[in-house]
Please model this.
Amino acid sequence: MTGVRWWRLLSLAVLAVIWWGCGTAEALQINHDDCQEDRLNASTVDAAIRFHQHGRTFVEVFSNMTVEVPAREWRMANQLTFSEESTDYQKAMRCLLRGPNNTRLNKELRDSNPVVTASGDKVRVQYDSTIWINAHKDYWLGPWEIKKPSKKGEKWKVGLQPPTLQGAHWRSVKAQLDGLEFRHYGQTSFASKAKVEWTNQRPRGCPDNVCIEVDLPWPRSLVLTWDQSFLKPAGIATWWVLASSVLVLAAHRARRPYASRAPGTPASSRRVRDFGGGQGLAQPVLRWALLSGAVALALLLFIREREQAADPLLRRHMLICIAAGLTLTLVAHPWHGGASSRVQKSGGSRSHRRRQAYAVIGFASVAAATGTLVILGHGLFHLPVGLVIEKPHAPDLRGKLGYMLMGLTTVWLWLAAMVAWAWRFACEGGLVPARWTRKWDKRPVLWVTVVSALLGLVAGCLLWSLLWTAGNQWKRYTWLIDQHGSSARGNYLGGMLANFAFTELTWIFTYSWFLAGIALLALLKLHFTAQRAQVSHAMDYIPLGPDKPDLLLVAALFSLTAGMRGAAFASNNAQWGIWFVLNILCLFAVLAAGRRWSVLSRTGHLFHMHRPGANKQSELMEKAHQYRNLNHQLKLADQGHANGVTCEQLEEQLRGLRRWLVERCLKKNPPSQISILDVALAWGPETHWWPNALRAARLAFCFGVPASITLLYLESNNLYNGQQLRLEPTAVPSLFAGFITFQAAWAGAGFVLGALWRLLPGRQSAVRAWSLTFAYAMPAALAGLFTKFSDSNPTMLLLYSIVMLSILTLTGLWMDTSTLRDERLYWPSGFALLVSIHRLRGLSGQFAYLLAQLVAIVGIVGGVIKLP
Model:
């Protein structure tokens, strides 16, 4: 019954979306009014065009035009002061600014409608608009025409060619070039290296009168040719090849039994059975590594084909996408793993798997069949054979319903495939709580129904986002035009719906790197389980961190989460493959330094290798507590508050603690600056490295929430991103996905900090945080130099780096508090305990360090908000 209710609610939601999308899709009819343009010759016009290129990926162009219309000369002038929703206003404004032809100005962006003010017998209209030169094509902006170079060696031509007001008095025309190289034509009244002005010139086009030839710098030209060059697919392909290679190496590692690293363990007993079941996870990881690369290559080829001949390929591509989504879902085998895979293959276990398989296959097959029915049975939905809109015939209600069903089912299949792979990796790796797997075993149909409904809700939200942005785009395209009595809007909406599935699939697959991260986490968990089970047979050996083969997985996880999120701020995606490798290499360089400069590596072998468990760790924490108390009493004694204890007695007890530390270090005297407190804090709050990693990941995740919100706000505050938010179908979903990726970046960095806590160089937690941030900062610095060289804006990249350092610093400080959590009952709050811990370690310096980071973050945020 629950499943039926879910499907009823989902059906109602889909019908509501269909009603909204179809009911508002009024037709378009362009009325050719008698504008009496000869009466506008008495008007006075001032125009200006401004280019902004510094600190931007694309060149931004602003147009400002002011028109003063004499109300006695033009009968429609007073209509300009009417309500903006009235037909008279729209007719008058269109006659003034655009004339009968509206198509050439339908791509410009406007923050608001023109500002109209009436003064005496004149009506003044302020008309502002903007565009971004983000492709090699012609642009119309207000009264300006920007023509692309027709052949190599030519420049962009910017000419004054207004659609109306050719006979008006153009009193002043200005152009500001922002450092662009240019050549001007016509009789100018002022000209410099950055600005040109014309006075009392009539617009005659380029190059007869008011005209500029502009040469874009190489960084902007490179961006424009990026989509048409081989660099974009090569950069993406390089990233997929490297990420897939890491997964292949990880799967190969998982196939081998775990080998003990404990010194003194006989070689014959070092290789034992795989306690974690890594061989069971190796196969799906290897399968996903190959499949993901193939799917990425196919999507790149599809994009190329659609750019060249999109219409004839829609039917074929949609059939392939549905088949691929169904294949990805079923090949994942989500019914494997979990509790059923860990018990003996009894009849009950086989029954669980059979019911789970039937549920998954049934839902996926129904979705695939529904989408295929729309494509093959196009006549039932009044759709053409190739699924392409045949102008001027707009799709009717049944056709729009067919497009929506095809798109929703295809998107649902791909979302289900991502969830199926994530569940398989998590279950095989033991990342899923046992109670979840028990519920999955008992009621598979119910849980598949619930998940299917949630995925349907997500697909519906994606469809809503597309319809919302399509409505905004349509308003921009048809500004000042009567929309009644034509099928143009129906054609436009039908085209958007027809391409809905492919647009969303490309967006969904860009976030499939989450699956690689889950697979790496699962492999690390299995290796840790095998490591812990093996060392329990090898005396009391406890390793400091992941073994050498697993360090590659840790480094890859760091690069996938923290590194790749930062790479999004670095110019273009050609650097992603290089960035991925550099993050891994830099982390290994930090670990190489840690082998010499970490606290535990300088205390000898016996202490940190032979830790028989909680008893000895409790002894260490007790000694650290004594050390702090003795230092506090010694300080009081120096101030004359000895309370019957002499300084000599306190110093003797401190020497006794030092002797205890030396004995635990094979009588190898560690450096004098390393105390028992340093050793205790370097060991961390947990016995093994995996619980340390989980604790640090949770802390970093919590500390990162305000940082994620701030960074997302700043990204949306960007002029280009802010304008695209209302116009790009995937812009709003990208906000939610961006929050998740930011949180994954902080949690991934915290996980790596906890996993390598005992291996990183430095005595203080802040130094360890800086050491890990260095592994990210080096590639970021190189990318920052490139963005500075290419005249882009590296501010967000710098801000992301400082925020990461702050989050890791806070995580490290709270890790120290967790290490001495047994002393929490002696202090009124966790902060008081933190103050007590670091009283001997330079607390004022720690706070000053954090305060400096906060000041830098606030300063950068303020600068980004104030950017034009």
Observations:
- The chain has a mean pLDDT of 78.
- The radius of gyration is 33 Å.
- Residues 278-331 form the longest helix (54 residues).
